[in-house]
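Action item from last week, closing it out:
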Amino acid sequence: MIQKKVGIIGGGQLGMMLLESAQENKRAQYTILETSKDCPAFDLCDHFIEGKLTDAEAIKELSKNCDVITWEIEHINVDALIELENSGKQIIPSPKVLEIIHDKGIQKEFYISHKVPTSPFVLLQDNELLAYLENHPEFIVAGKVVVKSRTGGYDGKGVQILDIDQIRAGQLAFDGDILLEQFVPDVLELSVIVAVGQDLEVEVFPSIEMYFNPESNLVEFLFSPAQVSQEIEDNARKTAFKAVESLNSPGLFAVEMFVIGTGEIWINEIAPRPHNSGHHTIEGCESSQFEQLNKILLGEALGEPNLIQPAAMINIVGPKDFSGPYALKDELYWLEQTDVFVHMYRKTESRPNRKLGHVTVTAPTFKDLMKRAKEVKEMIQIIQS
């Protein structure tokens, strides 16, 4: 049987887990484009191209020996991908989706034009921010606003929650084009993973409840099913479906949402790739987000996204007090557990708040899950080696 050839732009942990999901029943050859062989996905790929993810020539080289191309990070050369798609190369999701997603301002305007609810926002230059807020104090809620860099932000970077005095003091950490959003206090954050096949078949995963580190803005803990009413669950799935359907492309999409005090749901952002909020699906669901993406790339029927049992995920990040070689404390203990699944990302060095891995915890009931997840969260630790 002739294997399909898949190209992945980016060789980080998402690419690594996509390749891991393909190992058991391998139906394709995988080529990675990444800046260095010192990347999580290198040992699992069939072929490797070393180059910048923004280099049009490197992307064209990848395309020569691939039937279909995908990516695991948004900060890549969109123009090169559009050119390839126009020439007939299959790219999933369509790079036209990436054109919308990689600029947070364009993404917000897309939601408005497709009548998808989102938080109030204004597009500004950084040097216009202070004057705008002084002239529109009603935009400030609970003394705060959210400011985002329109491009280049990831893993919690490029997002700040600030008050007017911090802005006056020059504490905005980025410049140029910015997105000013109204702060939503006491918000519940959900994610819904949506898989869209090449035939536009759709499967929607159960909603995920997320909790973020207030300093790093990284997800540090999540669980599914979300502890929300059936009405909110249905509305979240419906809203995620509508947003993804509007993109009109096959692919895997993580839709991050706010549930505000009235129960109304606002879309925050969409990630057109596997996402941190879906890592629990590896052990927690009948088909993981990575299995679904492989099926999409290969043109196969989608799997079932149903939860096997309640599941939680805890991110493992680098401690604040050191950078360099590291180890997971009590690694053998964790490997012996039958309800705890450790995924380390093969990164050679720890840095403060760097994602090094994650832990999934499963349990027969939600009460048991919360008890066990709390124990694991308190015990799991990265140490210097």
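Closing note: The longest strand covers residues 188-196.
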